[in-house]
Amino acid sequence: MTDYMMNPASNVLVIGSGNFGTALAFHLASLNDSVRMWSRDTKVVEGINSNHKNIKYLTHVTLPDNLSAVGPDFTKEMFKTADVVLMSIPTQHLRHILTKIKPFIRRSHLLIMANKGIENSTLELPCSIVEGCLGEQIAHNTVYLSGPSFAAELVVREPTCVTVASKNAERSAWAQKVFHCSHFRVYLSSDIIGVELAGSIKNVLAIASGISTGLGYQSNTRAALLTRGLSEMTRMGVKLGCDPLTMCGLSGVGDLFLTCTSEKSRNFTVGLRLAQGMSLEEITKNLGSVAEGVATTKSAHQLCRKLKVYSPIIDEVYQVLYHGKCARDAVDDLLNIEPLHELHMIR
Ligand SMILES: NC(=O)c1ccc[n+]([C@@H]2O[C@H](COP(=O)([O-])OP(=O)(O)OC[C@H]3O[C@@H](n4cnc5c(N)ncnc54)[C@H](O)[C@@H]3O)[C@@H](O)[C@H]2O)c1
Ligand SMILES: O=P(O)(O)OC[C@H](O)CO
User: In which residues is NAD(+) bound (predicted)?
Assistant: First the structure.
């Protein structure tokens, strides 16, 4: 029997000390032997090690004694002592960081990716970026985590259910053990692309939902927007060979409901503020944290053109974000499209 099966507690290295990295590190520290968080910012590292606080993200949370910080350099030692390496870096920067840590990654590491998004320069999901940077074997063993999980709720131990997807069932089971506790449940999937695509596109739809709310539209409109958005996501998934049922899971409708209905969502907040007349530049500058949907909108719009997928909502969000289209005109144009058969181009 493999070591981790005998003793599920592990030494964890979390790369990325933002909201989600900090929340996951906090959770993992309660279940595992030791957790180290890597940050590119020396002051964040010092704050965690001297005061048990992250001075930039989730600043109110007191971090436990078995959680320490490392960085800004990467060293061989950090990886040698880790069983689990969890990445929580914004998708547009993932390739750069993976290239840096490549010499230190071993096959024995349980590598978990927690980011959501589609890379602008390549239109690739994180799973393709991992394969391109670290090779087929490591990609085969990597686990992708997604689902409805606000960082701020994880740190108050709100019951949360997520999905992990991997080509390697044993690694998924390991990840399940590493995270599992009474308030954090991990479901399994083998549809990596479906899980990652859903987690990326829901952020674009959350911007749309924020715009709709900001313009004063109410619950009927939101329900229609989410459902028609789900169709766009599903059409993309089907073209990419995913199981359409993945879109009904935690990483699909689960995260779609969460993110499109709450002001706790940064993507929803971006849409809300756009509708209130703020510029995208001003919004992203003041957010203090990444809203992946902003960059993903550009990639999703291009990907739909490439795949020849009908995507009216994604396209309108793209026009608002990148071509200065008035948000109200975008909603009017969506309301004026000719209704098709409801499941048009999905089946
Ligand atoms: N916050 C959440 O509730 C949540 C939940 C689920 C998934 N996610 C996903 O997790 C990922 C990270 O989100 P977050 O909320 O932690 O973002 P964040 O903006 O709070 O933090 C991002 C972290 O990445 C670091 N970073 C940014 N650019 C970098 C670069 N070029 N090199 C190295 N480090 C860099 C920042 O310093 C920061 O520590 C995103 O893909 C997000 O969609 C977030
Ligand atoms: O704050 P958001 O919009 O980035 O959403 C965070 C998570 O993705 C929710 O599952």
Answer: 16-21, 151, 266
Q: 143-146 and 11-15: which strand pairing? A: unpaired
For residue range 104-145, what is the model confidence (pLDDT) as tens digits? 999 999 999 999 999 999 999 999 999 999 999 999 999 999
Q: How much is the average pLDDT of 20-49? A: 97
CA 73/CA 103 separation, integer angstroms: 13
Cα–Cα distance, 279 to 46 (Å, whole number) = 35
Residues at the binding site for NAD(+) are 16-21, 151, 266
The CB of 56 under 6 Å from ligand 1? The reply is: no
323 Cα–ligand 2 center, Å: 24
Q: Is 202 annotated as catalytic?
A: yes
Q: Could you give the domains of the chain? A: 3-190 (3.40.50.720), 193-335 (1.10.1040.10)
pLDDT at residue 4 is higher than 50: yes
Reported ipTM: the value is 0.99
Cα 264–chain centre separation:
15
Q: Is the CB of 151 under 6 A from ligand 1?
A: yes
